[in-house]
Amino acid sequence: MTRITADVNFLRGYNQALVMAVGRTVGTFERSTVVQATGLTPQAVSKVIARLTVDGLIRPTGVRRPGVGKPAVVYELVPHSRYAIGAHVARRTLRLVLVDLAGSVQYSAVSPLPSDFTPQQLLDALASGITAMTGVNDVGGRLTGVGIGMIGPLDHAHGLVRGAHGLRHWHDVPLREIAEKHLGLPVHLDKDVTAGITAEAWRHGATFGDAALIMIESGIGGGFWLGGTAHRGAHTNAGEFGHTVVDLNGPRCVCGRHGCLEIVHNHAVEAGDVARAARVVAVGVVNLLQTLDLAHVVLAGADLLRHPETYLAAVADAVQADVRRTDWLTTKVTLSSLGADVIAAGAAMQVLDQHYGIPELAPI
Length: 364
Ligand SMILES: [Zn+2]
Description:
Blueprint: H1 2-26, E1 28-29, H2 31-38, H3 42-54, E2 58-64, E3 72-77, E4 83-89, E5 93-100, E6 105-112, H4 119-136, E7 143-150, E8 154-155, E9 160-161, H5 175-183, E10 187-191, H6 192-204, E11 211-216, E12 220-226, E13 229-231, H7 261-270, H8 274-292, E14 296-300, H9 308-322, E15 332-335, H10 342-356
The protein binds zinc ion.
């Protein structure tokens, strides 16, 4: 009985998510638009539309009168019907954004974090930042939760920060649980880069293929979108792109090994050679393409955004020159359209996804 109820709930959530996805993508839609896009029956779509209208997530915006046949009600998503807060926790800063149901960033603020901050200091900064945000944005009753994108390594499944290089107070900290208690809101915790690639997937919609987000900011990481979903790996620790080795005789890295992409890159930056730093990243990206055959590479991060064109050109040139058969293997290289907000915005979108996105299939 429990299993049947669970399946019905899953199906209802799934159908609802399909309709919401159409609404986000096309602007205005009719019942027939959804039927065509999703393959659901007209009866099923009518039910979902009725429920979403009652909940205020979509609304009728007019009637289309075709030459032949019955008039059709036209609907649209109500962007301000639900919100989520996104937080990007970096080594020295906390960025908070407010994102609406359509995925638009309505508010963005950045504040400094104490050096080597403790979990309590982060919780206090989150609480005061959220109070400031909700003080100037009326979201009463429409807030779905808080998404946190944080530097790893971290265990997304259990909501644990496993220990970040350079932060001494963060070993096996159950951040999701303590933040939920402290903030009184549901919390979703993920790696910064995984949140970031989720934002890109939302922005690009259904056409987004296999992709990576390369972030250069207090370290170098990679977020992956593979087979239509975020790829977190067996231990939810995928993305340590900066700690792949590019020079066997290279300098010693914070992780203890020699010649990691991150340390080789940082040495070039410290020497003032941004062109070389960008080429180091480009080599790493080409290695990724050879391994994963990606359709899209997105570049992001505060340190990269200081020299966006240099990095973009270096990576695009390397992809062109080093990936054989570029007539056939085409990969798009772009900068993130969300700029410095990409991680925080993606963390907020992950919260909205949990409620109004395609539910992730639970293991049977
Ligand atoms: Zn390393």
